[in-house]
TrEMBL record:
InterPro entries: Tscrpt_reg_PadR_N (IPR005149), WH-like_DNA-bd_sf (IPR036388), WH_DNA-bd_sf (IPR036390). Pfam families: PadR (PF03551). SUPFAM superfamilies: Winged helix' DNA-binding domain (SSF46785). This is Transcription regulator PadR, N-terminal.
Length: 186
């Protein structure tokens, strides 16, 4: 089990030796070598369409938007803050979103014009679906699932309480046993 910041690591230094995320980053890199690229970068239009679609559901702040796109694409597409926040600013400049301060965060909400644009695009598939539903060769299904598991474990390791870390460890141990059972069934 990982204790708080072993080897002198600090939060926010992902991928560097001494960071408690380092082992997970190394595993993720190895899995990425097996699975190939994550599906490329989304274009500006995809980010714009995704932001409008999400804000049509409810007002959100930038980090929520990034998290939602990442979750809805099953981790295949994680837009950067450097693409989401400029898109939000552009939408505000166009009068499609309005910004309100809430609990010290900027929360974005669609204006009537923004709702109309989101409604006009509602017949098209959501941009995160095309990222998540890429044709994945059968040989890559298991490594990609393993990568998603590593990402979830890393999240628990970095932000979970000791009780949550213990619970996640128990889940992983049980999953390992069940995976070996799959092999034994044949």
């Amino acid at each position: 089990m990982y204790s708080t910041f072993p080897m002198g690591g600090r939060p926010g230094r992902h991928g560097r030796r001494g960071d408690r995320m380092f082992p997970f980053d190394a595993i993720e890199d190895q899995l990425r070598d097996l699975t190939g690229p994550r599906g490329g970068r989304a274009g500006r239009g995809d980010v714009r369409a995704a932001v409008l679609a999400l804000l049509a559901e409810e007002p959100m702040h930038g980090y929520q938007i990034i998290r939602e796109i990442t979750e809805r694409s099953a981790g295949v597409w994680k837009p950067s803050a450097g693409s989401v926040y400029p898109t939000l600013q552009m939408l505000a400049d166009e009068g499609l979103v309005e910004v309100a301060e809430q609990d010290g965060k900027k929360v974005y909400n669609l204006t009537e014009a923004g709702r109309a644009e989101a409604e006009a695009a509602s017949g098209r598939p959501a941009p995160w679906k095309s990222a998540a539903e890429q044709d994945v060769p059968e040989s890559m299904v298991l490594p990609r699932a393993a990568m998603r598991l590593v990402q979830a474990v890393a999240q628990v390791a970095t932000s979970g309480t000791p009780v949550q870390v213990r619970a996640a460890t128990d889940v992983i141990d049980e999953a390992r046993r069940r995976i070996y059972t799959v092999l034994a069934e044949d």
